[in-house]
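Dear colleagues,

As part of the handover before I leave the project, I'm documenting each prediction I ran so the next person doesn't have to rerun anything. This entry is a single chain, and its sequence is reproduced below.
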Amino acid sequence: MEVVLFFTGLVVALVGTLAGSGGLIGMPVMLLIGLPIHTAIATAKFSNIISSFSSFVYLIRDRKVTWKECLPILPIALVGGLSGAFLSDSISPSLLEWMAFFFLLFALSLSILKGFKPREKKQKHYRTYGFLYLISTYDGLFGPGQATMLMYTHLLHGLSYLKSVALTRFQTFVSCLGAFTVYFHNGHVEWEVAIPFALGALVGAQVAVRLAAKLSTKHVQILLNILTFILILQLGKNLFL
């Protein structure tokens, strides 16, 4: 089982770092091998702490983003991750899937209609930070698709792909760190599962950030749209069938 977890974590981090939606792969695998839902979520949070921090450090050392750009996100992501984890026992997974379904459908529609064309970076305002908080709360609650939502938020706001990846990795690290403390406190962590999954994620994240620099904006949009469409189909199957 450790080998399966390692390679699942690797693929999840590779896909998740480049375009998000790695949870589309990881969550079903963990549930398939018999992990309880809260243990699966806790495992995903732990692996994301490791993988997102390692990829973020690589990108900030490569000067793809600055600490000044990251710091405003820190309290939003932390409070969002904690909020989601505290709510995890009171909100049904089906409601979370409905929320993710409509948000991703809206994001995909915007992407197809507007694209990720270079334009002047817009000033962030409370609505953007509100979206970031809701996404981090969703991440603390459940998670699959949150990185794709963050990528869309930053890309459609006028940021470059690599800067969007860096900010997404930073916010994922902070929100997962906040959420994981709650899941750990509530006894949902199984280290024999979490550690091999996280080691695979660490490798996948490092491969992904090196591939990211080679992707053009056109490639990114195609990849995001494909993964988002698959995620919408997966969520729709669970909701309507």
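The mean pLDDT is 82. The longest helix spans residues 37-61.

All the best with the project,
I.
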